[in-house]
Design brief:
Layout (H helix, E strand, L loop, with lengths): L2 E6 L3 E12 L3 E6 L5 E5 L4 E9 L2 E9 L2 E3 L3 E5 L6 E11 L2 E3 L1 E3 L5 E6 L2 E10 L2 E10 L3 E3 L3 E4 L2 E10 L4 E2 L5 E3 L3 E7 L6 E4 L5 E4 L5 H9 L1
Parallel strand pairs: 5-12, 13-20
Antiparallel strand pairs: 1-2, 2-3, 3-4, 5-6, 7-11, 8-9, 9-10, 9-12, 13-14, 15-19, 16-17, 17-18, 17-20, 21-22
């Protein structure tokens, strides 16, 4: 019994779910395996579509057999024609005629623009008072970064303060996890606090240091 995955108007109008083909060749009668409802659809046709994958600083040109409706944000497994290796990519946009679209039937698409997400480059901005340090690290796309946690880079531990995600929004609530493939930039702190400085009338700079607690002073004397 032939099966295909298409959206179900009853239980899943957007995300494709498994269906059984009851009858038909092009216009088919389908039964949803999730809810059991029966409906008619046009059977998806596999077409060869050009795919341009952004991977770091390079672009990989390849082709893929696609069917049904392709949408921005969809994840596809694409074979690299040069290496023969398969990689997971995420659709950025679709070229249909001379326009960029966010969704379209596979047979109407000229080019799929995508980015590799099985391994991604995560950018981290580290604040140092007046300056900002930029760090890059390559990690698996499914690796999670949690706000409030520390990430270790080159024997340094940096505390994640907030994360800018790819749709342009920010996450800053402690405990929120974001996968690397969804991250635009991580903002982190070294945890090192510079002494505060104040100015006196004569232009003299005075450093204000945090006083040690009574407990810590007693502990030092005890040693």
């Amino acid at each position: 019994m032939e099966k295909i995955e298409v959206p179900c108007p009853s239980c899943s109008p957007v995300i494709p779910v498994p269906h059984i083909i009851l009858k038909g060749a092009r216009d088919v009668l389908l039964q949803c395996e999730e809810c059991g409802s029966v409906h008619k659809e046009k059977k998806p046709v596999n077409v060869l579509v050009r795919v341009i994958v952004s991977k770091g600083k390079e672009s990989i040109h390849t082709r893929a057999m696609l069917s049904g409706t392709i949408r921005k944000g969809d994840e596809l497994v694409i074979d690299d024609e040069a290496t023969g290796e398969a990689s997971l990519v995420q659709v950025i946009s679709l070229e249909v005629g001379d326009k960029r679209m966010e969704e379209a039937p596979a047979e109407d698409i000229n080019t799929v623009w995508a980015r590799a997400i099985d391994e991604v480059l995560v950018k981290i901005a580290v604040s140092h008072r007046e300056t900002t340090e930029s760090i890059e690290m390559r990690v698996p796309g499914d690796r999670e970064f949690v706000i409030g946690d520390k990430v270790e880079i080159n024997d340094r531990k940096l505390k994640i303060i907030r994360i800018k995600i790819r749709d342009g929004g920010f996450k800053s609530r402690k405990g929120v996890a974001v996968r690397a493939k969804d991250i635009k930039r991580i903002y982190a702190d070294t945890g090192f606090k510079m002494p505060k400085r104040i100015s006196r009338a004569g232009g003299e700079r005075v450093v204000i240091k945090k006083r040690e607690s009574v407990w810590s002073l007693k502990s030092k004397k005890a040693d």
